[in-house]
Amino acid sequence: xxxxxxxxxxxxxxxxxxxxxxxxxxxxxxxxxxxxxxxxxxxxxxxxxxxxxxxxxxxxxxxxxxxxxxxxxxxxxxxxxxxxxxxxxxxxxxxxxxxxxxxxxxxxxxxxxxxxxxxxxxxxxxxxxxxxxxxxxxxxxxxxxxxxxxxxxxxxxxxxxxxxxxxxxxxxxxxxxxxxxxxxxxxxxxxxxxxxxxxxxxxxxx
Length: 206
What we know:
Structural class: alpha+beta
CATH topology of the domain at 47-76 and 128-203: outer membrane lipoprotein receptor (LolB), chain A
Shape: globular
Radius of gyration: 24 Å
Helix content: 25-40%
Distance between the termini: 69 Å
Largest sheet: 11 strands, antiparallel
Strand order of the largest sheet: 6-5-4-3-2-1-11-10-9-8-7
CATH superfamily of the domain at 47-76 and 128-203: Lipoprotein localisation LolA/LolB/LppX
C-alpha cells in the first residue's frame, strides 16, 4: 500500500473514532442525567417523609469576624428546638416554636415573634433562615409557594446546590445515616452573610 493510501486509511480511522466517540458520549450523558433525576425523585420522596430528627454539629459564620458555636437542632413535625452555644450565640441562644410563633431566648431576654429572622438581626446582628433550615439540612428545598427553588444535582441524584428565598445552599459532603444519605457539610450564603454547618451526628432518622 502506498503512502497516499496509508494516509487515507489513517484519516478514515480518525473520523470513525471521532464519530463513535460522539455517538457514544451523548447517550451516556443523557442516561447519567436520567439516572440522577430518577434517584433524586426517590430521595425527595423518602426525605419528605422524615418528620422528626435531631442533629448535633457546629455552626460558623464565614469571614474575618465570623464566630463559631455548637449547634443542636431537634425537629418534631412542625415544632423545632434550636440551641447555639459559643461565641456565635453570644454565650447561648435558644430558639423554639413552629411556623406560627417562635420564642427566642438570649442573655438579654426572651422574645416571642412570628418573624424570627428580623428579631435575630435586630438583637444579634445576624440571622438564620429558621423556617427553611429543617428542609435544607436534609438536602431538600423548602415547600415555599412564593419562593420556588432551583436544585442542581450531583451524579448520584443528591442535591449539590439549592437556590431558594435569596439563599444559595451548597452541599460539600454527605454521610450515611441508617438507610439514608444525609448532609454532613453545607454552606449557606445570601449575599450579605454566609455560614457553614458541619453535622457531626444525626439522631432519630430512619
